[in-house]
Amino acid sequence: MRILHVNKFLYRRGGAESYMLDLVGLQAAAGHQVELFGMAHPDNPPYRYARHFPGHVQLEPPPTRADRRLGAAARMVWSPAARRGMEAVLRSFRPDVVHLHNIYHQLSPSVLRPLAEHGIPAVMTLHDYKLICPSYLLLAQGRVCEACLDGHFRHAVSRRCKDGSLGASAMLALESAVHRRIGAYGPVQVFICPSRFLVAKVTQGGVYPDRLEQLSSFVVTREVAPKAQPGGGVVYAGRLSHEKGVDVLVEAVARLGHGHLEVVGDGPERNRLEALAAARAAGRVRFHGRVPRERVLDLLRSGAVAVMPSRCHDNQPMAVLEAFGCGVPVLATNLGGLPELVDGGYGEVVPPENPDAMAAALGRLLAQPERTWAMGRAARSRAEREFAPDRHLAGLERLYQRARSDRAA
Predict the structure, then answer these.
(1) In terms of domains, do 207 and 255 share one?
(2) Which of 178, 312, 175, 179 is nearest to 245 (CA)?
(3) What residue numbers bound the domain in which 124 lies?
(4) Rounded to whole angstroms, how far apart are CA atoms 112 and 272?
(5) Which among 332, 334, 329, 337 has a CA at the least distance from the CA of 371?
(6) What is the pLDDT along the chain (409 residues), one digit of tens a residue?
(7) CA geometry: angle 341, 370, 328, nearest 5 deg
(8) Do 266 and 206 reside in the same domain of the chain?
């Protein structure tokens, strides 16, 4: 099968990109012909169709010049350059199916119009809540918010969902409203939701409920050694941004009074978190920054427990699946798709924004290393059973076939 993957970023920037690039490797190894389309970026490796990629635009932080801000805003709604590039790649590569990921802003749903015109089936993996929430996260002013599930994106303006900025929030609301009004995502036959929670929320938001399919992501365990013995400290692997709640985790470790926290990853909150750790848990929190995947796995294995302290509705974080693959249980907040991963003996769940409850749970897990290690072994077995690459590929091929059948109907 000829498969074209589409994402705005084509290098390992976050969970969505890591999933896509790992999937590309699996599909190529299975004998499929796979190519990629996205935005030009200095961190991209060489790609066959790079000459057709729309130019690089920096949106975080936004351009300083007024004309460039206006151009970036227009591109968020509709990008003629992205549409032309997609048209050229479709004519040259002639894919059997197009698998879309995060196309918002830098590409825009303009890339979908050529698919409809050429009759090419399309599936789209939803890595976040963008189709029902202008600011992606179901979060406003740092708190869980589901106001826009009624389909009226003006709530994003009144609540200043984007960084507390009226202008930025209005731009995101306009983008979502225009795309909803013109049916911009209509050319997609199947929307893939990694978690049951995401299926429920997108259904509630009224976005093509008859086209939603739940398919969990995957983690490669075949070449990953599991944790070999009980014991260790606490590990966090992920982005250092406000919605991830790492500050709550630092406070929990401080209140616990013992144990060490390894923080793997980078992001806009790093300086503030380092200062908080120095003040509240001096000498017991180490920040590693962004490191190669093998080092991430080594650090996960070194811990007794991995923590996802999110204050937002996380969907199905790759960091949880990787911890499971390493034989490490997960302590998570009871938001989004996290409970459906952790419940059942694979870790513990605590309320968000509650460092006392998190500290108590960490104390229990660290005080019972043999029990915690057994939970990790159960998590590893679940990863091998439910999140196996072969199972994921089989599910994808079924959904590709559904998209092809629906396209032909």
Answers:
(1) no
(2) 312
(3) 2-131+185-218+388-408
(4) 40
(5) 329
(6) 999 999 999 998 888 999 999 999 999 999 999 999 999 999 999 999 999 999 988 777 666 666 666 666 667 788 999 999 999 999 999 999 999 999 999 999 999 999 999 999 999 999 999 999 999 999 998 899 999 999 999 999 999 998 888 988 999 999 999 999 999 999 999 999 999 999 999 999 999 999 999 999 999 999 899 999 999 999 999 999 999 999 999 999 999 999 999 999 999 999 999 999 999 999 999 999 999 989 999 999 999 999 999 999 999 999 999 999 999 999 999 999 999 999 999 999 999 999 999 999 999 999 999 999 999 999 999 999 999 999 999 999 999 999 999 998 7
(7) 35
(8) no
And the tokens for 199? 């299926």
Domain harbouring 201, CATH code: 3.40.50.2000
Closest CA to 161 of 125, 130, 137, 129: 137
In a domain, 144, yes or no: no
Helices assigned H by DSSP within 129-266:
154-158, 166-182, 196-204, 246-256
Q: What is the DSSP string of 22-64?
A: HHHHHHHHTT-EEEEE----TTPPP-TTGGGSPPP---SSPPS
How many domains are there within the chain?
2
Task: Say which residue the tokens 């249980």 belong to.
Answer: 329
As a whole number of angstroms, the distance between CA 398 and CA 199 comes to: 18
* Calpha distance 92→110 (Å, rounded): 19
Residue type, 317: P
Residue 136 lies in a domain: no
Q: Residue 28 is encoded by which pair of tokens?
A: 């190529």
> 245 with 309: CB under 8 angstroms?
yes
Residue 238, token pair as written in the block:
């992920």
